[in-house]
Structure formats: C-alpha cells, structure tokens
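Appendix B, example 12.
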Amino acid sequence: MIKLYIIGNGFDKSHKLPTGYDDFHQFIKDKYTDLENLFEEYFQLKTNEEYLWSDFENDLETFNWRSFYNEKNNLDVLDENFRPSFTFGLEDELRQETEELVDEIKEAFENWLNQIDLEQTDKKIDFETYAIFLNFNYTMTLEEVYKIPSKRIFHIHGDINNTPDSLIFGHNKELEEEPEIDENGDSNRTMFTDSQNAAKYPFYAFQKPVNDIIFENKTFFESLRDIEEVVIWGHSLNQIDIPYFKEIIKQTKESITWKVGFHKKEEKETHQKTLQKLGINRNRIKPFKTN
C-alpha cells in the first residue's frame, strides 16, 4: 500500500518543537524589538491567553497601508513651493521602506526557524518504507529525525535548509482596489496613486500564491494517482491550503481511505466535515487521535 502523509505544524509541535506562532512572537520580542513595534503599529495580530500571536500568517493581511502611507507622506499640496514631481521622491521612499519591512519580517522568520534545535528530538512513530510526504513545515524533522530520504518529501512551501531565502508564508486575502476608470469613464488616478500602491507592497508580498504553486508543481500532484491511503498528521485543514487538498482529491482514486489526525476532541468533527465538503464520502474518512 502506497501512503501519502500530509504533514502540518501539529506534527512538529507533537515532538515538543517550538514551532507555533506564539513561539515566533516570543522570538520577535527577544530579538527584534523594533520589528515588534512595527507589527503593533501597522498590523492587527490575534493573540492567545498569554498575549502571544495565535494566527500570524493569516493576520499578515491586516497590514494598514493607509496608516503607513500617511505616516510617510509629509507633502502639502497647498504649499506654494509644492511641485507634482515631489511625489516621485515620496514613491521612492515608500518603496524602499516597505521593501525593508518585508525583508526584515522574512529575515526574522528564517532566523527563528534556524535556531530550532532538532538534536534532542526523538521519533514517535514508524513510517512505511515507501511512503510519500507532502510537508507543509519548513523544518527538517522528517529528514534529520526520521532519516527519510529527501526525494520522498515535498516541502510545498520550501524548507529552511534548501530554500531559506524563498520560504512561502502568508495569507490568501484580496485587497479591494479602486477601479482605474470610474462610472463616467474618467480616470481615478491622482498624482499620489503610485505612492499609495508602493505602500501596499507588504500586503501583496505576503499573499500566498496557492494556485500558482499547484500549477508549478503539477508533476508532483499527478504522481499521486496510485496512492491508496492519505494520512493527515498535524494539519488544521485551514482555508488557505484547501486548494491543495482539492488537487489531491482530483488526482487520486475515489476509493482511497483518508485518515485524519486530531489533537483536540472538537477538531475531530470539524476535520470530518471539511473533508466531506470537499466531496469525500464519510465512510472513507477515518479520524485518529494524535499523541
């Protein structure tokens, strides 16, 4: 039997690894004080009972570009010395500062992952010899702890060893944009339009391009046609990643079994309903408790 394991962050956390959003927030608090201040000023990040981040990636869509733009825009169009060409300088400043903000967030994220130590991590389960892994984690737990050959593991959003500069993380929201042409056929552009667009860069930089990722990796998904069982371990079945599951269902046989792990009791029914909505018969869904 050829199995596909879909591995999410709950897998690493079950190994007592500090890979939660709250762990990332603690790392930011300790190492990147200025960046934490920027998060507090321009983002709305949900927290848990300890006031640590609980949904960091999704919350990246809350970037308040208007506030960022207004903070940097000191031009007064009513000033007798104002020139429209001044807006070019504003645009350049916003592009530079938003790029620096995005780079700093990415750098902090990568540095956090790099300092996670796998040395004392022990195996908890035995994987089948020929199992295939779709890994949503950036860590090398499967490779370094379980000694699984990298050719059997697909890190769909990158991994900290092989693609550290291009890890994919973020949200799946769209920004409501003003149309270029109004109802009368007139342009909505102003002399500040390009500067405002520059201020929006962090929102788009952290948009997770799920459909593009599926298209670019269609060879992997098409290779799943002979899979006889899917085991979901530690994945929350969040809405951002649902297109990946739809593609797996599309490429695999209707008769396969779907085993889905749950940590908390309330997750059991939630996961079952999510998979059923995707078209999987309830009789083919087998929940199991991860521990």
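The two ends are 24 Å apart (CA to CA). Residues 3-208 form one domain.
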